């Protein structure tokens, strides 16, 4: 690993949680090269980089450029998730799984006239019932042996005119010499399914009674065998959050929002297992609930995803609206049980991804050492210390704002950040917006005889750069270098424009200079989005409240100070609104009006999405 890459890994290691889960090691191209599980992610993943290794492990560590992880609730869950991830990604460095075929075993009830229960290694579309996979092969085998004794099906090779040995032992229903009614098999299969789905209380009670009787007779070896069998049953059929209780294909969406950024996790449950996880992280302006409805709609349209049979979302999202935009797929919010646990797990992972992003930025001070010089050298300008960067934000022309962040010696100085409400009429006129904020910023610095920056960066391209130069040179007589920060289609920093043409500078994407540029662009965009969200929310709340009969400026301000959002006002009891000195008639009017506005907004958003697609 390069010095820069090792620093990046070092910072991510510091953020690992003390929780069970799976980790995915990636190479420099982002390809998954190893999947592992851990009771404690922090201890296990750190061991790769903090200990000496030989052979294959040493080679693996030498190729790791990044990693990600998924937290779960127990070590058993991480074991089963690891199996799924290995089977899906087939990482180069993973040791072949047990049973020699790339998978752990399943317990199968065969689909035939005289069914059997057996251990198999592969899933086939043959109409059979499959349970598993089971990480503990021996425990699975012992469980099948127990089921064959308690709920026998067919254990022989079929009809042979005489009873088999298993029939005499009570472990075969007698297909070897007679016709066994299908209803008899159906009853047994129903009991076996119930057992393997976790309903083992009766069986454990029976075994415990046998164990106690054996111990009372001083048959300690027999008692120990029964004790071990109880343990194997617990290992095999214990319910797992990673494994659902049915085969319904379902997608789970959850999210976490902070500081103007939205983190989304999507879990894909297929064949009773968590088959895939996707994550998204981006800044937003609208309410997170509206962003999520839009995201889910576009998720299935743009990616051409096969629709599941069920979608699970948190209670904050409108299930009826989402169901409409995804072609009437049932959308539900689970209240308890396994599905609720999976939904919460997705939310926890979304929160950890976003918190990791913020904490990485805080930990990355050492990474910017010399980064400023790399940028100035690449641009061919004199070395400097101070960068000021600008970005604009608006929603369809409303509440146009601009924001400025300041980096000194590669570090953000938040005391010097500035916000601007722009007066430019045409929001589409990027040049006019840019000229206004540059004119206001540097006219003020000139009047105050304040220190000028060594470099100005605009979130944008040639249009914004030329607008800045026009104001600086032709209006203010300032000669400050100006660059443009350009993003790619994935909204990630791609290029730095500088000079009189639109040819980007060739910055090494692994260099400290490029990383500093990325940090600046992310920070100014976040700051602009966050400020715009506050302005837009305040204006939107005020205008909607002003439209309600009986609500004047004083009443509006009381409501905003107390509740802060339309949603909270709408959900508040009339008694709480009246406590602000508002009459019951006006309070009732407010409640009715806001519920009507909220319903109209849902319908409008849904119609907009249908027109868009």
From TrEMBL:
One Pfam assignment: UvrC_RNaseH
Family annotation (InterPro entries): GIY-YIG_endonuc (IPR000305), GIY-YIG_endonuc_sf (IPR035901), GIY-YIG_UvrC_Cho (IPR047296), RuvA_2-like (IPR010994), UVR_dom (IPR001943), UVR_dom_sf (IPR036876), UvrABC_protein_C (IPR050066), UvrC (IPR004791)
GO cellular component terms given for this protein: cytoplasm; excinuclease repair complex
Domain GIY-YIG: 18-95
Record localization: Cytoplasm
Domain UvrC family homology region profile: start-end pairs: 252-472
Residues in UVR domain copies: 201-236
GO molecular function terms attached to this record: DNA binding; excinuclease ABC activity
Keyword entries, A-Z: Cytoplasm, DNA damage, DNA excision, DNA repair, Excision nuclease, SOS response
GO biological process assignments: nucleotide-excision repair; SOS response
Superkingdom assignment: Bacteria
Subunit structure: Interacts with UvrB in an incision complex.
Its job: The UvrABC repair system catalyzes the recognition and processing of DNA lesions. UvrC both incises the 5' and 3' sides of the lesion. The N-terminal half is responsible for the 3' incision and the C-terminal half is responsible for the 5' incision.
NCBIfam families (UniProt xref): uvrC (TIGR00194)
Family named by the database record: Belongs to the UvrC family.
Protein name: UvrABC system protein C
Organism: Lentilactobacillus sunkii DSM 19904
